[in-house]
Write a structure and sequence with these properties.
The protein is mainly alpha-helical. The chain is about 60% helix and about 0% strand.
């Protein structure tokens, strides 16, 4: 299997500055951190990808 994750930054019409890039990179880290436990459960815990996504998203809804 493989995992794909893509992000982008639309800066058309404005000058790109370090804060914009920092904000984008932060969003990537937050997303990866959110799904990392599910990824590990698929790799080592026997869950299917769909089970892991549902579990991670349910935990996130509960503040966990």
């Amino acid at each position: 299997g493989e995992i794909r994750f893509k992000t982008s930054l639309d800066f058309e019409g404005v000058e790109l500055d370090p804060r914009m890039v920092q904000t984008m990179v932060h969003a990537v880290f937050v997303t990866v951190n959110h799904y990392l436990s599910g990824l590990m459960r698929v790799m080592y815990g026997g869950l299917t990808p769909m089970e892991a996504i549902l579990e991670v998203d349910q935990d996130g809804d509960e503040g966990g």
